[in-house]
Amino acid sequence: MSSEQPHGVVFPLTEGDRRSTTATGRAVLAAALRTVDPVGALSVEQETAWRSGYLVHFRRAVEAGLGAREDALAVARDGLAALHERMRVRVDGDEVRLGDWSRTSPVTGDEVRGTGDPERELTLPFHGERLRGDDVRRRVDAWVADGVAEPTLAEAVGAVLANPDWLRLEGRTVAVLGAGAEMGPLPALLRWGARAAALDLDRPAIWDRVLPMAREGAGTVVHAGVDLLADVPAVADWLAEQPGSLVVGNYVYADGATNVRVAVAVDELSRRLLEARDDVALAFLATPTDVFAVPGDAVAESTRRYDGRSSRATWLGRPLRTVSGGRLLRRQYVPGTDPGVNDSLVPQQGPNYALAKRLQRWRATVAREAGRTVSLNVAPPTRTRSVVKNRALAAAYAGAHRFGVEVFEPATANVLMAALLVHDLHTDGGPRHPQTWQDEAYAAVHGGLWRTPYAPRSALGLAAVLGYGAARG
């Protein structure tokens, strides 16, 4: 909660002229649940400790959509509508609704043509090597065998390996929102010779990294420094004029409440572009630290791993569960459930992070149902700057391998996710499934969180303790 008056997209004012992220988040999630799960909506509204109690409600918003595809769609539509109805735009001291946001100063972009030769095959950086061909296939097969990724990853990556001409994304412009993001696809796209519209804040530190990469690459970049919190109407006009079919890739991130504000800004930008053009595709990276429905074979593998623990692990786990009241090293799923529900929400990331990422999944669900091409892929836990600066998360990631979770290096995760984007754009968003959760689970690279024997939060603290020394190093 804050009394300051930020610019651009803002949380609405509440009683006492304060902007409450808690009141907004709670109201939006209650609205998302109301049609499908009115009891859950009431529970959200009555939650008095939102910053610590939000976890169960975000889980419930996934569970509410498991009954039928229409239920998941209702949650997504109602959540989006509630957020857009409440959020405001502050311009010159006045506040307007998102839909009433009028044109801002025009965006002008500069073009850079790369001088390099395009890479004509998919190669994957991994532990200091560059894998290609069958080595990439073997690496993917190893991740699948280790429970780090869903088996369908092999199908998606295999299709890209078999069609190297896909990499250039001929006839498209990929708008990379958050051009400097570590997990964004821009470096790979430029090596492959694609055309990108790169947008990020007008900060020298960002463009000092991006522009040399553009010059050395094999693609074409039109770029502009913009503030998405304040410039959405002008950015929408600029992107609407880009040649070829348009891909709107959302890779933005900010800390705290600003993350929700910028996520809403990007969502409003996406909404306007979807209305303006009929050839717009959307791209997102879903965080693995969220709640997902998972297939029955993931539940079965997790169950086998739990039941097959070593005698030492069993002996150590029993007193830990006892003294923690059952909170530590809990079994992840009820055996035999299909689908299971993986709850990897991390309390330290907070309700604003959860809402910003859930907003993206809601938009993906609604756009896919409307027949648009959507690329939404679960990205692996990755040692990005935003993660390692959080000491608790950095320590947990350092100790995660002890619980069957693999944390990726940014270079590997970046290329792998870019390859999945290429796959999705050439396959109309990938296979369509009867249920929304199955669309999200396709080719998911969750790092092992879905198939580890323990409920992730029940092992998070121990992973942090075990990894603390490594994280400090």
Detailed description of the structure:
The protein has 473 residues and is of the alpha/beta class. It has 2 domains: 94 residues, no CATH class; 268 residues, Rossmann fold, CATH 3.40.50.720. 48% of the residues lie in helices and 15% in strands. It is built from 18 helices and 16 strands. Strands 6-11-10-9-12-13-16 form a 7-stranded mixed beta sheet, sandwiched between helices. Strands 1-4-5 form a 3-stranded antiparallel beta sheet. A hairpin with a 3-residue loop joins strand 2 and strand 3. Helix 1 packs antiparallel against helix 2 and helix 9 runs parallel beside helix 10. The longest helix is centred in the middle third of the chain and has 20 residues. It is globular, with a radius of gyration of 22 Å. The two termini are 35 Å apart. 49% of the residues are buried. The model has no long low-confidence stretch (mean pLDDT 93).
Helix/strand layout:
Layout: E1 8-10, E2 13-14, E3 18-19, H1 21-34, H2 38-45, H3 50-63, H4 69-86, E4 88-91, E5 94-97, E6 110-113, E7 123-126, E8 129-132, H5 134-145, H6 152-162, E9 172-177, H7 186-192, E10 195-200, H8 204-216, E11 220-225, H9 228-240, E12 245-250, H10 257-276, E13 280-286, E14 291-294, H11 296-307, H12 311-323, E15 340-343, H13 350-369, E16 374-378, H14 385-388, H15 391-399, H16 410-426, H17 436-441, H18 456-472
Parallel strand pairs: 9-10, 9-12, 10-11, 12-13, 13-16
Antiparallel strand pairs: 1-4, 2-3, 4-5, 6-11, 7-8, 14-15
Helix pairs in contact: 1-2, 1-3, 1-4, 3-13, 4-13, 5-6, 6-16, 7-16, 9-10, 10-13, 15-18
